[in-house]
Amino acid sequence: MIVEAQVTKDFKQAFDSLPAQKRRIVQEKIDLLANNLRHPSLNTHRLHRPSNVWECYIDNSMRLLYQVKKGILYLWYLGEHAVVDKAHFTYHLRSLEEEEKQLEIEKQRILCYVGMTRAAEELYLVTVEGKESRFVRELEGKVVLNQ
Predict the structure, then answer these.
(1) Do the beta carbons of residue 45 and residue 65 sit within 8 Å?
(2) Would the pTM count as exceeding 0.85?
(3) β partners of residue 72
(4) Does 143 map to a domain?
(5) What is the mean pLDDT of residues 6-33?
(6) Is the residue at 38 inside a domain?
(7) Across the beta sheet with 72-80, what order do the strands follow?
(8) What confidence category does residue 86 fall into, taking pLDDT thresholds of 50, 70 and 90?
(9) Omega of the bond prior to 40 within 30 degrees of 0, cis?
(10) Segment (H or E) for 45
């Protein structure tokens, strides 16, 4: 069972552009997917390239590209059947990999900030100059930094 879902900008844009009735159908299929990745009505199958991305049917003409990693359902793309043709998918794969990296960085950022909020009274972060965490650099100007 899937515990979390992440969506790409491409997926969100495609989903938001759908009519309300079609969005309901897509949401129902995502719910089925989250509860049973092999639900018969989804007609899921692994793509040949990349082999870690799957496709499922929303209806006769619409497909959903997704990936499951560590219990997280990544919804990559939603569109007509042509989205999986090789020329388009080869181009789209580059953005999928970048999107996945951004989602992972965002999860790390959240963990860092949650950890920082657990400090009872004071928080000391010690870093090596020039090798500061990207998350610590993002705090400059927002918190008091003693250097």
Answers:
(1) no
(2) no
(3) 4, 69
(4) no
(5) 91
(6) yes
(7) 4-7, 72-80, 62-69, 54-57, 45-46
(8) very low
(9) no
(10) strand 45-46
